Amino acid sequence: MESRPYQNRIRLKYKFLSFFYDLVELFFSNPVTNPRRGLARQIPNDDLLILDVCFGTGNNTLLIAKNNDRNRIVGIDLSMDMLRVARRKLLKLGLSNVTPLQMDAIHMHFKDESFDAATSAFGLHEMECRVMKSILKEMNRVLKRDGKLYLVDYQIQDTAMKRFLFRAYLLLTSPPHVKDFLNYDWDAIMKECGFRIDRIESYRISQIICASRYQ
């Protein structure tokens, strides 16, 4: 299978990172500049079925689910180790409106137009561009017409020193193609994958791309 190297790399990396991944959340302690909180504010507390791709330990979904009891959220991830951490957190919080599943986002086991909205945070930069586009096209397929897409991931910093430190951090923690990721033409990529960008919001070392499915 074409995606096998991607699958194996992700499973191995997050088998190790699952033990301390949530410590990174300390970097986003400021609620104003925290992109996960910014994402949670985008989602209304309506009767929505939401897909979270690259679910990880559930940090995106937990914020949404705690505030929005009318949302139902399905989170998918390749890493069973990350999902185990997420399930423990869900059990501790008593959240019943979240369903974590192990699944490859390139080949989702969902029917066309199943979800009202889809989210993904800090996962796309891990993928080569062709894999990322395949996943975005799958997200398009499972979203309803005019469904909403919210992507959270890294963006280039605004000063030379910040850019230098940030790039050094990414080169140490991320695959080599991350340097290309920071310079993607998101308008072109989203259009190719069937989405229209509605707006982009900036947060600490990151941005939220808010988009709608149009085809």
Description of the structure:
The protein is an alpha/beta fold and 215 residues long. A seven-stranded mixed β-sheet has the order 3-2-1-4-5-7-6, sandwiched between helices. It has eight helices and seven strands. Helices cover 39% and strands 24% of the residues.
Structural class: alpha/beta
By CATH, the superfamily comes out as Vaccinia Virus protein VP39
The biggest beta sheet reads:
7 strands, mixed
* Total of DSSP H or I helical runs spanning 4+ residues: 8
Spatial extent as radius of gyration: 16 Å
What is the fold-level CATH name, i.e. the topology? Rossmann fold
**Percent helix among the residues?**
25-40%
Low-confidence regions: none
Coarse morphology: globular
Query: How large is the share of residues in beta strands?
Result: 15-25%
CATH class descriptor: Alpha Beta
Q: Can you name the CATH architecture?
A: 3-Layer(aba) Sandwich
**Secondary structure tally: strands:** 7
Order of helix and strand elements from N to C terminus: HHEHEHEEHEHHHEE
List keywords for this structure.
215 residues, alpha/beta, Rossmann fold, seven-stranded mixed sheet, 8 helices, 7 strands
The gist of it:
Helices cover 39% and strands 24% of the residues. It is built from eight helices and seven strands, in the order ααβαβαββαβαααββ. β1 (49-53), α3 and β2 (72-77) form a beta-alpha-beta unit.
